[in-house]
Amino acid sequence: MRHSASPYSVAAAVREAFAITEQRSILGHRSNLAQRLRNTPQARSFHDYFVTLLPSSSLAPDRSSNHNLPRAESKPHSGPARGLTNDQHAARGTTIVRIPLRSAKHHFGAGCVRGGRPYNEDTFQAGTIEMPAFAKRQPISLTRDAAQSGGQAAAGESGDPQVFYFGVFDGHGGNECSEFLRDRLHGYIEEAALLFGMDSSLQKNDESPAMDGGIMGEMDPEDLQKTLVAEWKSTVGGYFKRFRPQFFPAINGAEWNPAGNSSIETILSYAFLKADLDFTTAQAAKRTSPQMSSSIDDPVLSDRPLNDQDMLFHPERPASQNLTHRPPAKGSSPNLDAPIGGSSRFKGGSTASTALISTPTPTPFWHPVAPSTLITAHVGDTRILLCRTSDGKSVPVTSNHHPDLPSEASRLRRYATAFSTDSFGDQRVLGLANTRAFGDIASKRVGVSAEPEIVTTQLAPAEYSFVVLVSDGVSGHLSDQEIVDIVKEERTPASAATALINFAVETNESEGGADNATALVVRLGGWERRSEGGDGSFGTKERRDFRKRDAEDPRSRRQ
């Protein structure tokens, strides 16, 4: 019992004893709760934050005896000086923290405006996705000892460094499809990685942690590919009767099979095509909106069966709502079993450009010494650009899937009669500007597919300064180099994304008003040197200044 100079009080002693007992009880409860949380398996899900390690001294005072608070109690250090050490964390503890990606303005920026349109059909997504790493393994001689780097890692649930996911989705005909992709496409990718039994590129097969394979467990990759293609053939027909996805080795045989049936390219292709099939068949199972129906005043036509004479009408088979016909995946995010879309049929669609970044070490991809692997999966005319540090040039990673693109014209040559030219000289397929898109139920038979264009780029340390994802409200008005140069002039990716969409909207003089504009700016290792290569941002400055003056001058606007 603690004694003081004041007179002894029995009541005070009893209160103190009860306080000590209550405090121990609370601490014991917290300890048991923490133990239960540690023993509870974590849910596999998408996160809009990333996990990193910070020195404990940034969150709490240094535990050294020479650093006490208040500062008046501190004493000058008089002991022998310690030698230098290569381990930065040898004498300092670390704390795992979660940082919301959209709040990390020095690492990531996002901007989205509706422009001159009545509503916004663009959406975007950013976060970390739960899947094994696919980064290229580094030579042992170029990696640090595990005690120095691996011991301080902030890794994902699989034990690999976190995989970052970024996506831009440009809807047309409404925002139902673009919102579906924003909320669920990453879930399809996660689930496909489980179904295909994807292995980590950084661990040997016998060292990789066992994956639960979703609710049904790991399935045969060849059967998954063949089943999906058969579903497209029987459900849609037309172009898909001879459909041979580029990255499906079970369909193409030896044409493309460098990494077997469970490569990241195959998984992304499967996820995109399955998401598109689910969305399309879900719309086909719904009644056409009265505003869009020609039979609204005809009681005979309005009494006909749902989706009568539609290309996807199968009254005996309900529309697929998730990756497999099985109960909803408990704990997974998003809920792939939830109904898709609203109560009436949506005939529009959406483009999609996604970028996944994986690192071979726990060092984040924006660090100047960190190599990484960038994989882009792209459908439509949204755009992904890299900025090369050495010369400041823009490096396009995607191509616009338009009818005048030679590869697309060749792919759809059997349906050339569906092509037309509008008053501006632009080619269209059944009135659509894009030959690849999600949704667009009326154009599926002629080959408007969501099969993604997949490109893998190895990013050497500080080789690129940043990556930009934009919708056509930006890329349709500004050149690739203009987009890159605008980003160079800003201090942070957050301010760069805002400046980019504002410039695109303010200088757009389209007759129908500026389109929806969306931009994501992601910092890479060469960010601090983004203005050193080539002419910096001066190469397009004169052109951009002219655009701005012209937009601000009311006399220059067409009447």
UniProtKB/TrEMBL annotation:
<keyword id="KW-0378">Hydrolase</keyword>
<feature type="region of interest" description="Disordered">
    <location>
        <begin position="284"/>
        <end position="354"/>
    </location>
</feature>
<feature type="compositionally biased region" description="Basic and acidic residues">
    <location>
        <begin position="305"/>
        <end position="317"/>
    </location>
</feature>
<protein>
    <recommendedName>
        <fullName>PPM-type phosphatase domain-containing protein</fullName>
    </recommendedName>
</protein>
<dbReference type="InterPro" id="IPR000222">
    <property type="entry name" value="PP2C_BS"/>
</dbReference>
<keyword id="KW-0904">Protein phosphatase</keyword>
<dbReference type="InterPro" id="IPR015655">
    <property type="entry name" value="PP2C"/>
</dbReference>
<dbReference type="Pfam" id="PF00481">
    <property type="entry name" value="PP2C"/>
</dbReference>
<feature type="region of interest" description="Disordered">
    <location>
        <begin position="57"/>
        <end position="90"/>
    </location>
</feature>
<dbReference type="InterPro" id="IPR036457">
    <property type="entry name" value="PPM-type-like_dom_sf"/>
</dbReference>
<dbReference type="InterPro" id="IPR001932">
    <property type="entry name" value="PPM-type_phosphatase-like_dom"/>
</dbReference>
<feature type="domain" description="PPM-type phosphatase">
    <location>
        <begin position="139"/>
        <end position="524"/>
    </location>
</feature>
<dbReference type="GO" id="GO:0046872">
    <property type="term" value="F:metal ion binding"/>
</dbReference>
<feature type="region of interest" description="Disordered">
    <location>
        <begin position="529"/>
        <end position="559"/>
    </location>
</feature>
<dbReference type="GO" id="GO:0004722">
    <property type="term" value="F:protein serine/threonine phosphatase activity"/>
</dbReference>
<comment type="similarity">
    <text>Belongs to the PP2C family.</text>
</comment>
<feature type="compositionally biased region" description="Polar residues">
    <location>
        <begin position="284"/>
        <end position="296"/>
    </location>
</feature>
<feature type="compositionally biased region" description="Basic and acidic residues">
    <location>
        <begin position="540"/>
        <end position="559"/>
    </location>
</feature>
<keyword id="KW-0479">Metal-binding</keyword>
